[in-house]
């Protein structure tokens, strides 16, 4: 049975890694990009991202298989396949908490909030907007380009999708399933980004008690405002704390030294194995503790016996946002729409597995292209916008000086 056989996931990972390795050989631009990435302070985390994003794809592949055979959308019966989705997302949240809290600790009051805000917008939206357009076009194509609701309602749907919500488009049921509803995690990311300066004022900058109270009220207000539309859950947000804990962990040389030992590698692997086999949900105390223990060891630079070090894995990490965001749509096209055109019964194992194999290779190819030609230019554009804003600020400061003279 596909939904309980872990060898299916192993084969999918191997195929993705081979595809990535072949791309590294065939596309010099990719090899150049990775030339110095292995020297990154957080190279192990870069490798981890690749496993996580592809794990979510495997998780949704199994859910899609169950849906095609039963008509029910539910978690897989296997703890392992359930945790490939939930556990991977929890670790993604930890990565976010770690990277940005570490930056706050390092930069203190010199943290560039303007650059932070602009960079987040230009990190999330350049790829998301084309995907959103694809979803809307696909829905209207399936409906014969007929408007089934007033234009004002459609406009409201567009605004909701722009904030990473997924209401039905033009009365097409379960529109979010075209992308496996993956954007729910982006709402949590956005909440973390918006709450970060307030949390910094409470826990790092430490002003007056009134400032602390006002910031805590601000964080709660943000939680209510964003949660009003996205139903934010506290136990999901708790996973960010694992990353914040790791940010403090790596500032203790003795802990870092231990974390890079062979014993720590064994403990990290055991913690991950137990979390992925003993539990079916990640966002509970015990599995979050195990995942947090695993993460602080990886964040300290442990490459888990070399598993996070290969260039092919690091490239999967580089394209992880594309892989995460696009895999649902690629999966929908390949295993739900294409079989209808080719008159293939995707409910048969002999048909479904080859389709997922092709989907795997295609996903890595597409994600590589979107990273190089959408994500990278988007991030570069964000830096240019920050530079332009800085120049404009300098110009506005000089103007009063000239007037005063």
From TrEMBL:
GO BP annotations listed: polysaccharide biosynthetic process
Stretches that traverse the bilayer: 6-27, 48-68, 80-101, 122-142, 186-204, 209-226, 232-251, 263-283, 289-308, 315-335, 355-374
Domain Acyltransferase: 43-366
Keyword annotations of the record: Acyltransferase, Membrane, Transferase, Transmembrane, Transmembrane helix
GO cellular component, one term: membrane
GO molecular function terms noted in the UniProt entry: acyltransferase activity, transferring groups other than amino-acyl groups
Name of the protein: Acyltransferase
Organism per entry: Pseudomonas jessenii
UniProt lineage: Bacteria, Pseudomonadati, Pseudomonadota, Gammaproteobacteria, Pseudomonadales
């Amino acid at each position: 049975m596909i939904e309980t056989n872990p060898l299916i996931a192993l084969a999918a990972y191997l195929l993705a890694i081979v595809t990535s390795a072949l791309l590294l050989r065939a596309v010099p631009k990719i090899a150049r990009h990775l030339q110095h990435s292995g020297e990154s302070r957080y190279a192990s985390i870069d490798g981890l991202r690749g496993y996580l994003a592809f794990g979510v794809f495997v998780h949704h592949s199994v859910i899609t298989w169950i849906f095609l055979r039963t008509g029910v959308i539910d978690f897989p019966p296997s703890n392992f396949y359930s945790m490939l989705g939930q556990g991977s997302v929890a670790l993604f949240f930890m990565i976010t908490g770690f990277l940005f809290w570490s930056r706050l600790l390092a930069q203190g009051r010199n943290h560039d909030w303007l650059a932070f805000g602009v960079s987040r917008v230009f990190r999330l939206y350049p790829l998301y907007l084309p995907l959103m357009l694809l979803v809307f076009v696909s829905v209207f194509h399936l409906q014969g380009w007929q408007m089934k609701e007033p234009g004002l309602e459609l406009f409201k749907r567009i605004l909701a999708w722009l904030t990473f919500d997924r209401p039905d488009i033009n009365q097409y049921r379960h529109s979010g399933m075209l992308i496996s509803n993956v954007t729910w995690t982006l709402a949590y990311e956005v909440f973390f980004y918006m709450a970060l300066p307030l949390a910094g004022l409470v826990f790092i900058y430490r002003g007056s008690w009134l400032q602390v109270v006002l910031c805590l009220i601000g964080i709660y207000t943000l939680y209510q405002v964003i949660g009003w539309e996205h139903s934010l859950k506290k136990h999901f947000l708790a996973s960010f704390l694992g990353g914040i804990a790791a940010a403090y962990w790596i500032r203790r040389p003795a802990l870092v030294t231990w974390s890079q030992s062979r014993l720590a590698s064994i403990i990290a692997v055991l913690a991950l194995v137990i979390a992925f086999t003993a539990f079916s949900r990640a966002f509970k105390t015990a599995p979050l503790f195990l995942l947090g223990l695993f993460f602080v060891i990886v964040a300290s630079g442990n490459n888990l016996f070399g598993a996070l070090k290969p260039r092919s894995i690091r490239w999967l990490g580089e394209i992880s946002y594309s892989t995460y965001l696009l895999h649902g749509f690629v999966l929908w096209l390949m295993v739900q729409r294409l079989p209808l055109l080719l008159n293939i019964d995707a409910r048969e194992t002999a048909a479904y597995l080859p389709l997922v194999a092709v989907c795997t290779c295609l996903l890595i190819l597409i994600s590589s292209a979107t990273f190089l030609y959408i994500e990278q230019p988007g991030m570069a554009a964000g830096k240019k916008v920050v530079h332009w804003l800085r120049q404009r600020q300098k110009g506005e400061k000089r103007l009063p000086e000239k007037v005063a003279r």
